[in-house]
Specification:
Length: 484
């Protein structure tokens, strides 16, 4: 009876138990069953003793021999069944353990690959979603190339990685387990990420195409601006060169300068087109242009400078023509003055700084003493009082020419003689003022106009001009600089 009770207890505690829901539970059951097998082995001695006792009772012809044999037979059947069931359970637990090990390996493999895939996906999602802004077609080309490489990787390598995840998930599901203790990623979530990635790729392709189209339009704007800006700058340079290097006579120079001045004013329309193209480039946020180095602002400044330079040059030549007619200065002398000025005007700006002007005067034969250290150059300062009255630091061509013409007319009649000459032209020959009508009737129209433009109004007499102050102004420079 104790043996039978032990067998019943052992059977109910070992054979009918579950195999566990995971590797850890299965290993607990294996350890428990191993302990049970150990106890079963120790109980086999009791079974052997029971068999020997049964043999002795039979040999002694016990009165209940038949019942003893039957009872012994029942116990041995149950014992043998218990041993067989225990071995069977051991095998089943071993099989279950192997399956749980395989599932564990699949879980860990899936978790590692899913984590790697998700990390790559997050980086790829960030790259595909970033704002696209380029500054050239070359950058767009590099974007296209980078996108092509990514799509190629997506099609070959990453698609294979994703298929590997699908295969692992399929094997895991074949064991009828769904919860992976090593990751929160599920195949459904990864599938959604994959589809979202394919959508982002298409959207980025469209954004790159749109940006490429925008840059193609910007490139055409750059080319158009570059062509016009370069052509305009070339014209500016050529025109200034023609004006500064001419060796024609004064009247031919006047005609050429007047013609160029009109052309310069007409070219303002082309400059407006360039400025409009520049405005379009700024609106498109384009601030670099490999087709030109000239900005619209610089070209406008150069046009203004050329326009002013031409206007002043035309005025200077006209003054030279009038001075030649009035004073008798030889045209060759005027050419010499002009050539000497241009020689020292290295930057072709139409003006000389004070050091260049002093060098020019010495080259023309002016005797300018070298002052002692710390002393003022009184002689040169006196000259500057007339040629650079505003003391802006520069002597312009017209100021220089007026000075040189005045220095070559020392042999002209004095102030009193010229005053008497004007007085003789007045009605009665004794008035202290003269009228425009009297001037036009007594001298060529150009000379008359020159005098009228420069004479001050005579006070209290309508239409009268003050010829006395006019003659004084003509000789003032020569008288003041007689010592030079």
């Amino acid at each position: 009876d104790p043996a039978q009770d032990r067998q019943q207890d052992s059977g109910s505690s070992g054979i009918n138990a579950e195999y566990g829901g995971d590797l850890a539970s299965c290993e607990v059951l294996i350890n428990r069953h191993s302990n049970f097998l150990s106890s079963l082995a120790s109980f086999s001695e009791t079974i052997e003793g029971l068999s020997k006792l049964q043999e002795r009772l039979i040999a002694a012809q016990h009165a209940q021999t038949k019942a003893i044999k039957q009872r012994h037979s029942d116990v041995m059947k149950r014992w043998n069944k218990l041993c067989a069931d225990s071995e069977a359970k051991k095998k089943r637990l071993s099989t279950a353990h192997a399956q749980f090990l395989e599932i564990e390996k699949l879980f860990q493999g899936f978790a590692a690959k899913a984590s790697q895939f998700n990390g790559w996906y997050e980086n790829a999602e960030e790259d595909l979603s970033e704002l696209i802004y380029t500054s050239s077609l070359e950058e767009c080309k590099r974007l296209h190339e980078g996108q092509s490489r990514f799509v190629e990787t997506l099609s070959q390598i990453k698609r294979e990685d994703f298929r590997g995840l699908l295969e692992l998930d399929k094997k895991i599901r074949s064991f009828h387990v769904t919860v992976n203790p090593y990751t929160w990623f599920t195949m459904d979530a990864l599938e959604d990420s994959w589809q979202n990635l394919l959508r982002l790729v298409k959207e980025r392709d469209l954004r790159i195409e749109k940006e490429t189209l925008r840059q193609a339009q910007n490139e055409e704007l750059r080319k158009a601006y570059g062509t016009q800006a370069n052509s305009f700058h070339q014209w500016l340079t050529l025109t200034k060169s023609q004006l500064t290097n001419t060796k024609q006579g004064l009247e031919e120079q006047r005609d050429l300068i007047a013609q160029r001045h009109e052309e310069i004013k007409k070219r303002r329309a082309i400059l407006r087109e360039i400025e409009e193209l520049s405005s379009h480039l700024e609106q498109a946020m384009v601030f670099d242009n490999k087709y030109t180095t000239h900005s619209a602002l610089t070209l406008a400044q150069q046009w203004d400078q050329l326009n002013e330079f031409t206007r002043r040059m035309l005025h200077t030549v006209q003054d030279q023509i009038e001075s030649q007619s009035r004073t008798g200065v030889d045209e060759d002398e005027l050419k010499e003055f002009t050539l000497m000025f241009k020689h020292f005007d290295k930057d072709r700006s139409g003006r000389l700084d004070h050091s260049e002007f002093k060098a020019c005067l010495r080259a023309l034969g002016f005797d300018l003493p070298v002052p002692a250290e710390g002393e003022h150059d009184v002689t040169f300062e006196a000259i500057l009082d007339f040629v650079d009255c505003d003391r802006d630091g520069f002597v312009r061509l017209e100021e220089y020419m007026q000075f040189m013409i005045s220095r070559t007319t020392d042999n002209v009649a004095g102030t009193d003689e010229l005053t008497e000459a004007f007085q003789s032209l007045t009605e009665g020959g004794d008035k202290s003022f003269i009228t425009a009508t009297e001037l036009y009737s007594a001298m060529p129209s150009e000379q008359a106009k020159y005098c009228i433009d420069r004479m001050e109004k005579f006070p209290d007499v309508p239409g009268a001009l003050d010829y006395s102050n006019f003659t004084k102004s003509i000789f003032q420079l020569n008288t003041s600089l007689a010592s030079c």
